[in-house]
Design goal:
Elements: E1 4-6, E2 11-16, E3 19-24, H1 27-42, E4 47-55, E5 62-72, E6 84-86, H2 89-97, H3 100-109, E7 117-118, E8 130-132, E9 135-137, E10 139-142, E11 145-146, E12 149-151, E13 154-156, E14 159-161, E15 164-166, E16 169-170, E17 175-177, E18 180-182, E19 185-187, E20 195-197, E21 200-202, E22 205-207, E23 210-211, E24 214-217, E25 220-222, E26 225-227, E27 230-231, E28 251-254, E29 257-259, E30 262-264, E31 271-274, E32 277-279, E33 282-284, E34 292-293, H4 306-322, H5 327-340, H6 350-353, H7 360-373
Parallel strand pairs: 7-10, 8-12, 9-13, 10-14, 11-15, 12-16, 13-17, 14-18, 15-19, 17-20, 18-21, 19-22, 20-24, 21-25, 22-26, 23-27, 24-28, 25-29, 26-30, 28-31, 29-32, 30-33, 31-34
Antiparallel strand pairs: 1-2, 2-3, 4-5, 4-6
Helix pairs in contact: 2-3, 4-5, 4-7
Length: 379
């Protein structure tokens, strides 16, 4: 099993999965890696693969050797050299995607002294993998953009810090127990058939969050912002999260606490707030018409039609760029008045823009404005 070969004290070749890496290496770093590999082979437990990162003190070059395969009864042990041993991103995805048993073994073998398995290494935005049916206890994920989706996974006592998402991460059927989310921007996330129990959200921004059959139970939201929150009604005959059946709404907050939350452009149709407490909530241009709450926590002044707010912002931008007398501004103003007066209930205003009265160059500008403004309102 060729793990490491030294051509001389300056160069080291490590054989990995389907590739070979050659990097400049000083004697100290080379000795450190040899020591770690020795500990792996002669240690106890199981390690399927490893990733070694060490900073070369001789030339200040960081050596990253990815995808080393070590099939042995082994585990990292304490050693006196200044290096860090962890897992490469590709190997993390392989381990978590290969099944619950392999994932469990990997997490067990890669826990730090505080009991957490840190899966933050490398770029999580490089994969669109779907990780399915895995139990993840005491996992730490920090400082990454998340592109993979987790489906039917159970997370317990895990930490998520400084994350960003763009429509990924919260796949279908997950459970999150006693997890913490901190200073993260969750953009365009969905959470179909997800359960969040006893979780904490600190300084988290939810942008364009669309929830379906999602239960937040005994969760705390501290200084969180919700922009363009929407719900999708349940379409199946049975509830995936059984204890949602009694309240019957597609998005449920039960026994939750909200400290200084901000809501903007949110539509609370098919949403329920039960036994939840609010401290200094703020709401701007939200639609509370069909909200289900056991007490009123929002001021009357915040009630509005979010679709009309969207139209107003689009019209304002059109006037700023094309002028008040432009055909596009006049057409959309006319449509807005018809909608507000109840002469039309359709929210498709494309007909008034593509009736031949708006020049093509103006249409290009309008389409750019709609693309820019629309996502802020969940449209």
């Amino acid at each position: 099993m060729p793990l490491i070969m030294a051509n001389d004290a300056r160069w080291t070749t490590i054989h990995g999965k389907n590739r070979t890496h050659s990097k400049p290496l000083c004697c100290q770093c080379f000795a450190a890696i040899v020591w770690v590999l020795w500990e792996i082979v002669h240690g106890h437990g199981q390690v399927r693969s490893c990733y070694v990162t060490t900073t070369c003190h001789q030339n200040a070059i960081e050596h990253n050797f990815s995808g080393i395969r070590i099939m042995a009864e082994s585990q990292f042990l304490a050693h006196p050299f200044p290096i860090m041993a962890t897992i490469d991103m590709e190997t993390i995805i392989e381990a978590l995607s290969s099944g619950p048993e392999d994932a469990r073994r990997w997490l067990t073998a890669n826990r730090a002294n505080d009991g957490y398995a840190d899966i933050s290494q490398s770029a999580w935005d490089s994969s669109l993998a779907v990780i399915h049916g895995v139990g993840l206890d005491k996992v730490r994920l920090a400082g990454r953009t998340i592109s993979p989706n987790f489906v039917n996974c159970v997370w317990r006592d895990s930490e998520f810090l400084d994350l960003t998402t763009d429509g990924h991460f919260w796949g279908a059927g997950n459970e999150w127990h006693n997890c913490s989310f901190t200073t993260s921007v969750l953009c365009l996330v969905i959470s179909p058939q997800n359960l969040f129990a006893g979780c904490t959200f600190n300084d988290v921004v939810f942008e364009g969050y669309v929830a379906c059959e999602t239960l937040f139970e005994s969760c705390r939201f501290m200084n969180c912002k919700f922009e363009s929150l929407r719900t999708i009604p349940k379409r199946r005959s049975r509830w995936a999260v059984g204890r949602m059946a009694s309240l019957g709404s597609s998005l449920q907050f039960v026994g939750c606490e909200f400290h200084h939350p901000e809501f903007r452009y949110c539509v609370f149709a098919d949403s329920v707030f039960s036994k939840s407490r609010f401290v200094d909530p703020m709401a701007t241009e939200c639609d509370f018409t069909y909200i289900n709450s056991d007490h009123k926590w929002w001021p009357d002044s915040t009630q509005c039609d979010v679709f009309v707010s969207h139209l107003d912002h689009v019209i304002t931008e059109i006037i700023a760029q094309l002028g008040n007398d432009s055909p596009a501004a006049k057409s959309l103003l006319r449509y807005r008045n018809e909608y507000v007066c109840g002469h039309t209930f359709s929210k498709d205003y494309s007909a008034c823009l593509y009736d031949g009265t708006v020049p093509d160059p103006d249409l290009d500008v309008v389409e750019g404005i709609i693309d820019q403004v629309g996502p802020r309102f969940g449209l």
